[in-house]
Design brief:
The protein contains 11 helices and 9 strands. By secondary structure, the chain is of the alpha/beta class. The chain folds into 2 domains: about 160 residues, ATPase, nucleotide binding domain (Nucleotidyltransferase, domain 5), CATH 3.30.420; about 170 residues, ATPase, nucleotide binding domain (Nucleotidyltransferase, domain 5, 2-Layer Sandwich), CATH 3.30.420. The strands form 2 sheets. It has a 5-stranded mixed sheet, with helices on both faces. The model has no long low-confidence stretch (mean pLDDT about 95). The structure holds 5'-O-[(R)-(carboxyoxy)(hydroxy)phosphoryl]adenosine and zinc ion (ZN).
């Protein structure tokens, strides 16, 4: 069964074709990073307009890269939640129209759940029970999957997502958007023990918090350059020298990643899953991969970087497993849900 996946929940317009949830046939991602770089972050209106411009070419490219025609496509899977409303509307409207015109079954897919499914395209698919650390710009969660569609949220961030913390700290340090890759790059040159930063203590055993760490970086930078909290934060970065900048990046990254790995290790000990996967944009971080592999006593197969950040291959992959047990949605009825969290399964 060949499924066309469509993804447009944030700032990537993507289409991909996956066979039987295992074989990636084509994978097209149009990133808006260059556009949003001008503003230092994603501007929702600008994102939606850019999706409109490229959605059809991106879908056509996925078909032509795969050397397939519409006759070869068995179903369409599309991200309907969560994300920016204007962005979600573009992808879902394209999917609804194509499902109607081409007479294909349509499956609504949850973006965050789909991130986990990038790992099902690995050489060996992960086994259940599966512990997933989902870490992106909008989410930081630990989820235990007992089988496809049957999951339990063990813990989540109580404030900022970890990717959001990377993005905000990058701004404080004057590193370019998107902050995650910039901090990771700068950290390679820095001393991760240069600055002592705090780890948040949480009530819930598997919960996270990152806003205190971000504020601690801000205060430490102010102290380091000799100004107080009244000094405009957008002028701080210019006062840091290169050594201080890379040392802050490395020190922040160490604590942020240790926070994730401490919690994942606790959940691993308590639930003894058969496999562990990481998912979402921050799963691209090599320090996270290094620390996890060092501390967990099992082999972890990491997804390639391009399948960690937003893409439609993960949408088509989850779409396959979803279609095995769920009915398709009526294309005239499908609505977007911008703020649907992954607290409980939405499967049949
Ligand atoms: O999953 P994603 O592409 O979009 C969302 O659904 O949020 O994740 C984007 C997030 C951004 O916050 C970005 O800074 C972060 O993932 N990110 C990274 C790395 N690459 C992307 N964070 C840390 N290290 C990286 N190498
Ligand atoms: Zn994402």
């Amino acid at each position: 069964m060949k499924i066309l996946g469509i993804e447009s929940s944030c700032d990537e317009t993507a289409a991909a074709i996956v066979e039987d949830g295992r074989v990636l046939i084509s994978n097209v991602v149009n990133s808006q990073i260059d556009i949003h770089m001008l503003y230092g972050g994603v501007v929702p209106e600008v994102a939606a307009r850019s999706h409109i411009e490229v959605i059809n070419p991106v879908i056509n490219q996925a078909l032509s890269d795969a050397k397939l025609s519409w006759n070869d496509i068995d179903a369409i899977a599309v991200t309907y939640a969560p994300g920016l409303i204007g962005s979600l509307l573009v992808g879902t409207l394209a999917a609804r129209t194509l499902a109607t015109l081409k007479n294909k079954p349509l499956y609504p897919i949850h973006h965050v759940e789909a991130h986990v499914y990038a790992n099902f395209l690995n050489v060996t698919a992960p086994e259940f029970p599966l512990l997933a650390l989902i870490v992106s710009g909008g989410h930081s969660q630990l989820v235990l999957f007992k089988s496809h569609g049957d999951f339990e949220l063990l813990g989540q961030t109580q404030d900022d997502a970890v990717g959001e913390a990377f993005d905000k700290v990058a701004k404080i340090l004057g590193l370019p958007y998107p902050g995650g890759p910039s901090i990771a790059r700068a950290a390679l040159e820095g001393n991760p023990k240069a600055y002592a930063l705090p780890k948040a203590k949480m009530h819930g055993a598997y919960d996270f918090s990152f806003s205190g760490l971000k504020t601690a970086v801000l205060r430490a930078v102010q102290r380091e350059v000799g100004v107080d909290f009244t000094f405009p934060s957008h002028d701080l970065a210019a006062r840091l020298n290169d050594t201080q900048r890379v040392d802050f990046a490395a020190s922040f990254q160490r604590i942020a990643i240790e926070t994730l790995v401490d919690t994942a290790e606790r959940a691993f000990r308590d639930y003894q899953p058969k496999s562990v996967v990481i998912a979402g944009g921050v799963a691209a971080n090599s320090e996270l991969r290094r620390q996890l592999s060092e501390r967990l006593p099992l082999h972890i197969d990491y997804a390639p970087i391009e399948l960690c950040t937003d893409n439609a291959a993960m949408i088509a992959t989850l779409g396959y497993y979803y279609s095995l047990v769920n009915d398709p949605v009526d294309p005239y009825e499908l609505e977007v849900v911008p703020s649907l969290s992954m607290t409980k399964t939405t499967w049949a």
